[in-house]
Write a structure and sequence with these properties.
The structure is a homodimer of 247-residue chains.
Chain A: H1 3-13, H2 24-27, H3 34-40, E1 46-50, E2 55-57, E3 65-71, E4 73-79, E5 85-92, E6 96-97, E7 110-113, E8 117-123, H4 124-133, H5 135-161, H6 164-180, E9 188-190, H7 195-202, H8 206-218, E10 222-225, E11 228-231, H9 234-243
Chain A binds a DNA duplex (30 and 30 nucleotides) through helix 8.
Chain lengths: 247, 247
Amino acid sequence: MNPEAIQETIAASIKVACSDCNLRELCMPVGFNLEDMQKLDEVVATRRRVGQGEMLFRSGEAFTSIYAIRTGFFKTCVSSEDGREQVTGFQMAGEIIGLDGIVSDHHSCNAIALEDAEVCVMPFSNVEELSREFPLLQRHVHKVMSREIVRENSVMMLLGNMRAEERLAAFLLNLVQRLHARGLSQSELVLRMSREEIGSYLGLKLETVSRAFSKFGEEGIIEVKQRYVKIIEPEALKKIFKSQSYY
Amino acid sequence: MNPEAIQETIAASIKVACSDCNLRELCMPVGFNLEDMQKLDEVVATRRRVGQGEMLFRSGEAFTSIYAIRTGFFKTCVSSEDGREQVTGFQMAGEIIGLDGIVSDHHSCNAIALEDAEVCVMPFSNVEELSREFPLLQRHVHKVMSREIVRENSVMMLLGNMRAEERLAAFLLNLVQRLHARGLSQSELVLRMSREEIGSYLGLKLETVSRAFSKFGEEGIIEVKQRYVKIIEPEALKKIFKSQSYY
DNA sequence: AAAAATCTTTGATAAATATCAAGTGTAGGT
DNA sequence: ACCTACACTTGATATTTATCAAAGATTTTT
């Protein structure tokens, strides 16, 4: 047994229980009674640790499970034949990844941990089986997928209609909003991704991202020190992201 | 009873049967026996006609149903507070729209008919109920949503990484591929949308789209006459757009 | 602790696309 | 068939962002 396999066995042997999980409100539906909740625990087969820089799944790989992030931070990205890479999202605790694999039984993107992470492995057949039994879970799964569709719609708006500074403002506001929903600061954050990764997500080159950060800093809207960011004037950011008339 | 209501009543009274529908392979799962298939017919409540330029649903509207396109052609678009509009997709016969509404019980985009159209109205509660009964339908619904997520991933790649001509090449190839899957020509098509709508989808201005069309025409790759397009050299188009799968 | 590698910032210039403008073509309505 | 929208094309110019380059900061390795 190699070290990784041992690690996985240990992780699996620890009782994995959604009913006890402090992320429940984020990644599971509410409104269950205790009995149902215990049934629901069956949806999670094991937990899995993913070290920084490691892949949770990769494009082309057979699809078996979706994953709920317990701790850590991920990026998902697609790459073209000629090697161009597009970051399609950044995911944090309580969020679900792997839904891309359902349609073709193979994943179509890579999921890479940007910091040491742990995920709940939810075999999709379990999810479907329990969904047929629990309408609340079924509805929840549908909402999770719909949310992803809606999120991608707004990324399309961002990429198709906004200029560099608007994109970065929208990105920062979205990040702190999600972090805040997890009990973290509304104004301070440490970026888990590089300028290049931000640029890839926003359809910009890293230099352009860096310049936009510097500009916001000069204007006193934010305070930036490498990956540490403090939002001084959230209203100014919102204004940049909402109103600028582009083209 | 106003004329529209009468029209709807007539449409509903015509027996709506997926089991008889020639689009079944496109919009419904395969592998059902006749008995199940008849049960499945219940998923469709009515049909609805949507005239050119009319909205099937609009952003903010309460979500009740998803729609399978029987005939016609739609665009979906989101708009920002300051009025900028982003086309998020073009949909044709056999495709499903309205999935954006699930997450918040309200639609987050507009669906507009680009030509006279008819859709099958599938109340989402019906879909969910039958999904619990028929694992094949459940799996199909999940695949439809996953396909949309994967499609949007490719659009992100397109908007984030490609140049104008690559975007247009990818767009044209995708369109003819989908039309071909519906028994239409692999090389000829009549665009249902304006240059401006193409531009909105591709994150370009209409003039840029027009120039790219002209360039392809001059190079003999395509033949363009307003909205009529004939693809002369599909390989040349594929070479321009040599990224991976685009849905 | 020094060295190497990586990430970030900033400046100068180039390239791509938007904007403005004018003219042409096409479709729909009377 | 004519008139009037509206859609499309094309040219000239402006703007934005990419590219190239180099230096500074941070993290990792030795």
